[in-house]
Design goal:
alpha/beta; ten-stranded mixed sheet; 17% strand; Arc Repressor Mutant, subunit A; Spore Coat Polysaccharide Biosynthesis Protein SpsA, Chain A; 17 helices
Length: 435
């Protein structure tokens, strides 16, 4: 049984389908099955799906007559065998670490639902979208309070930025409503959340959402139709709050709850002139040099790029810059530092930037920082436990990349050789180690 079942409904998606599938099959997390449910496509989507199924045993294809996206997703749910379920739309794609981060968060925080940030893609531009600003685990009531502030935010309504427990879906018979053609995923979420105890926000974008022309929402987005559709959905939304609030609490929130009827579904936009908007590709660690040789320089460069990649994710999850995390790692690894110069040497960052990072880390209460004539004093705080945990994962991720495809025996041998190499390097570089 795979850990994750990824379900993709497919309907006439030939232009973007390969990008979607490739992003799934090249996930850093490998223990998954991909269920492609072809909803009677009339283009080459069926052939594309079957081509991938023929080359990767993790891919399963279900071909069916056209019946709409809700029924198509339900067929995928019925076929799934994983512990968790993740959804994608065929026009979109996910980051390389998407499934890994979702599963890691679910396991580490014992969460029934993980809700992640995403990228909104418009042409060649993208912007990062999220809503909950803390990574603290929420109960249903706390999550509902957050959702009530922005009831039409895509962050809460869609299913593709979330990870679900399949056992909960099956136990309570939660499915997409075939009779509703608007907000069917939102209704699915409302019904699922009623059975959750722990909901974990993930402060990292894991999904690239592309709003395509001709989509159901776009075609029906006129005022009269919008009111009609939202009115039909409102009873689900209202029932959800009645289920988690007592009568007095419900009365106090009824105006806030009713605001759903006048809120337009929103994911904001990615407009080039606005802060936070980037070109697609600039959100990740850039690689412009493509070495062909396998010398020591190339090995060091490749390792540094992989390290920077995982470092950037940790920084993003804690609203920090990469240099801030580098400085924090020096403090964490050294235990005690005596000067800004020492931190600069350990992090590869200028002393001026080190000071800025120390101030930022202190302002975020991740360290206690002091600077006087005797030097630097810096101590990691209890509030930094989450960052420390994510930094520890960086080493695990790098080790997994370096040893991918190795047998257990080969991995153990590589670890022993690595430890010997490190001892030799320490003696060559650090004076105290030569004694």
């Amino acid at each position: 049984m795979p850990t994750v079942s990824i379900i993709v409904p497919v309907y006439n998606a030939e232009t973007a389908l390969s990008r979607c599938i490739e992003s799934i099959l090249h996930q850093e997390f490998r223990d998954l099955e991909l269920i492609l449910v072809n909803d009677g496509s009339s283009d080459s989507s069926k052939e594309i799906c079957e081509r991938y199924a023929a080359t990767d045993e993790r891919v399963r294809v279900i071909n069916k007559a056209n019946s709409g996206v809700s029924d198509t997703r339900n067929r995928g749910i019925e076929a799934a065998s994983g512990k968790y379920i993740q959804f994608l739309d065929a026009d979109d794609w996910i980051t390389e670490d998407s499934t890994k981060l979702l599963v890691r968060t679910a396991e580490e925080k014992n969460a029934d639902l993980v809700v992640a940030e995403f990228y909104r893609v418009v042409g060649d531009n993208l912007s990062r979208k999220g809503s909950i600003l803390s990574d603290k685990v929420l109960d249903v009531r706390a999550y509902a309070d957050q959702m009530a502030e922005s009831p039409a935010d895509y962050y809460y309504g869609v299913i593709w930025n979330k990870l679900y427990r399949r056992d909960l879906i099956m136990k309570y018979g939660i499915r997409m409503d075939r009779d509703i053609s608007f907000c069917e995923d939102f209704i699915f979420n409302l019904e699922y959340i009623l059975h959750c105890k722990r909901i974990a926000p993930l402060q990292a974008p894991v999904y690239y959402y592309v709003k395509t022309e001709g989509s159901l929402v776009a075609k029906n987005m006129n005022p009269a139709r919008l009111v009609q559709m939202k009115t039909s959905v409102y009873e689900y939304y209202d029932r959800f709050f009645r289920g988690i609030l007592d009568e007095s609490e419900y009365r106090a929130k009824r105006i806030e709850i009713a605001s759903f009827l006048v809120s337009a579904a929103t994911d904001d936009f990615a407009i080039p002139i606005l802060p936070g908007t980037r070109r697609v590709g600039e959100e990740t660690v850039g690689v412009h040099y493509h070495p062909r040789q396998n010398d020591v320089f190339t090995g060091i460069w490749l390792l540094s790029k992989a390290y920077e990649k995982y470092l950037s994710t940790a920084a993003m999850m804690h609203e920090l810059e990469i240099r801030d995390v580098r400085v924090f790692m020096v403090l964490k690894g050294a235990g005690q530092v005596r000067s800004v110069r020492e931190i600069a040497d350990g992090s590869g960052i200028s002393e001026a930037m080190v000071l800025l990072s120390l101030q930022k880390l202190a302002s975020r209460k991740l360290i206690r920082f002091g600077l006087d004539m005797s030097g630097v004093s810096a101590e990691i705080t209890e509030e930094a436990a989450g960052l420390c945990s994510d930094i520890d994962y960086i080493e695990d991720d790098l080790r997994e990349v370096c040893c991918r495809g190795f047998t257990d025996a080969e991995t153990e041998t590589a670890q022993r050789l690595y430890e010997r190499v490190m001892q030799n390097l320490r003696k060559a570089v650090i004076p105290e180690e030569k004694k």
